[in-house]
Design goal:
Length: 254
């Protein structure tokens, strides 16, 4: 049987690109998102790539809903070999870190770090349970950001939330290695998504001025393809490490 993956944030952007790339690698897909808008387009793209697609309406930040999400996702295709943690939120207002509010802090940490941790925890328990299917390489994939490492003073809470995600990949790697489950942290740079639409022009100009070595914004397919490559087992002797997909933004140069 084919392996299956649960992809959060699946209805658009990086989530949709990840679903399609995984389908191209031979996975069936369970997509989860807080809204169903756009999910039919994801379904069509996954099916065109040769995979089956099941959509589940779910909020990653709602830990009380995780059990129901995993029950449905696990049952869709008789198990899961991959959890791709794509869903996340950005700050609603970019402002000096001295103006960061507790409400914004709590929102970012609640979804990006807390929600991702507890969903991954629940998934890991199922993967290591007796009788769990193993139909291929097994993995947890985390999407953090270059802001796990690079400080952005007008998005302090985002940086902290994503630094936490990078550590989650390391923690789960240590805990799950003995069970044959690898973890990966992908650190996107400036990616052309709806979330970054308001700053496309700003970042395009900065990239042209040398912000990134590869002088273009990243595309969602750059991230989706990386997730699928790792989840397919193409790098089986790596776990817990971070993969910057940033056009060379984090390469020190002068």
């Amino acid at each position: 049987m084919k392996p299956a993956a649960l992809v959060t944030g699946a209805r658009r952007g990086i989530g949709r690109a990840t679903c399609v790339a995984l389908a191209q690698k031979g996975f069936d897909i369970v997509g989860a998102d807080i809204s169903a808008e756009g999910s039919d387009d994801t379904r069509a793209a996954v099916e065109a790539a040769g995979g089956r697609f099941t959509f589940i309406l779910s909020d990653v930040g709602d830990t009380e809903a995780h059990a129901a999400l995993l029950n449905a996702a696990w049952g869709a295709y008789g198990g899961l070999e991959c959890l791709a943690n794509i869903a996340g939120v950005q700050v609603q207002t970019r402002q000096d870190m001295l103006e960061t509010t507790p409400e914004s802090w709590d929102r970012l940490l609640h979804v990006n770090t807390r929600g991702v941790f507890f969903l991954s925890q629940a998934m890991a328990k199922r993967m290591i349970a007796d009788g769990a299917p193993v139909r291929g390489h097994r993995s947890l994939v985390f999407i953090s950001s270059v802001n796990s490492v690079m400080a952005s003073l007008n998005r302090a809470e985002y940086c902290v939330s994503k630094a936490g995600v990078t550590m989650l990949a390391k923690l789960f790697a240590v805990r799950l290695a003995a069970h044959g489950i690898n973890t990966y942290d992908i650190q996107p740079g400036v990616i052309r998504t709806d979330m970054t639409r308001s700053v496309w022009d700003k970042y395009s100009a900065q990239i042209a001025d040398g912000l990134a070595l590869i002088q273009r914004m990243g595309e969602v397919e750059d991230i989706g393809g990386t997730v699928a490559t790792l989840a397919s087992g193409a790098m089986p002797y790596s776990t817990g490490h971070s993969f910057p997909i940033d056009g060379g933004m984090m390469v020190p140069n002068f």
